[in-house]
Design brief:
Blueprint: H1 7-10, H2 27-33, H3 39-49, E1 56-60, H4 69-73, E2 77-82, H5 85-94, E3 101-105, E4 118-124, H6 132-142, E5 143-156, H7 161-173, H8 177-180, H9 188-196, E6 202-212, H10 214-222, H11 235-249, E7 255-266
Parallel strand pairs: 1-2, 1-4, 2-3, 4-5
Antiparallel strand pairs: 5-7, 6-7
Length: 268
């Protein structure tokens, strides 16, 4: 980690006026185009943390079910806690085949779950939306003795010319995202300190990617909470620029959207 960390600053709540409602109009795009998580990362968690068939997992900010499904496929019981009604309904529909999935209307700060009732708390590409101090108290309350918290983020890699061009497009047309989403200027590993401090979490990372045709790449962009929507003056020039990026960097009709999946876990 680079430089001193201002834990007081990291413990300030997000400045977004309505983080729990931000994805209301994007639930379907999110379900279709957002990435899941690499199989190697899920295998690592199960093996390293000793998860078993009796383990109870709560997925906080479960959204459309992308982070709950890998555990459900392996037979785990998962309680998905989601405050946004549209996202929660999308998750319920997507995961209805899994008998061990329970949908919960709640939030990180108030899950509504019983005290000491879960073995693992998972927050996948979600912790940056939470109010840190009440979240920490709530996680401690619902975890069984010896329970662990797992934070995951799919962070865009920008080393390739294609991903660098995509990032430059975001800087031009979604230029308020860094102010609205402080986590984009504070790396996830640094922000995670606020939850696990004074301990340091265990950290692992895994490469991951999605491959998109034109409609898929456009959908991936529009699933982002900071992407301008129709009716915004930035929408058309943004989509036009994205099309030029696709034509230049996907000559075979397939755009490689690259990530690194970072995992932070430990007791709190």
């Amino acid at each position: 980690m680079q430089g001193p960390v201002n834990l007081r600053a990291l413990n300030q709540p997000m400045t977004d006026s309505n983080p729990k409602g931000r994805f209301t109009s994007r639930a379907e795009m999110y379900r279709k185009y957002r990435p899941g998580y690499p199989e190697a990362a899920i295998h690592y968690l199960i093996q390293t943390l000793g998860m078993n068939a009796g383990s109870v997992i709560v997925d906080v900010g479960s959204g459309t079910g992308l982070s709950a499904e890998p555990f459900l496929k392996r037979g785990f019981a998962v309680k998905g806690v989601e405050p946004n009604a549209e996202m929660r309904r999308a998750g319920e529909d997507h995961l209805k085949q899994y008998a061990r999935f329970t949908s919960v209307e709640g939030s990180a700060e108030e899950t509504t779950l019983p005290s000491q009732s879960v073995d693992f708390v998972v927050a996948a590409t979600a912790y940056h939306w939470f109010d840190p101090e009440p979240t920490r108290r709530e996680f401690r309350r619902i975890l069984k003795p010896g329970g662990k918290v797992i934070l995951l983020w799919n962070t865009r890699r920008i080393e390739s010319p294609a991903m660098a061009a995509y990032e430059a497009m975001l800087d031009r047309y979604a230029d308020g995202r860094k102010e609205r989403h402080g986590w984009e200027t504070i790396p996830p590993d640094t922000r995670a300190i606020a939850l696990f401090a004074p301990r340091l979490p265990m950290v692992s990372s895994f490469p991951y990617e999605q491959r998109f045709d034109w409609q898929g790449l456009k959908g991936r962009l529009l699933s982002a909470s900071y992407a301008p929507q129709r009716g915004d003056a930035r929408y058309k020039p943004m989509v036009d620029r994205l099309r030029r990026i696709f034509k230049r960097h996907a000559p075979d009709g397939e755009f490689r959207f690259e990530y690194v999946t970072r995992i932070y876990w430990g007791p709190i």
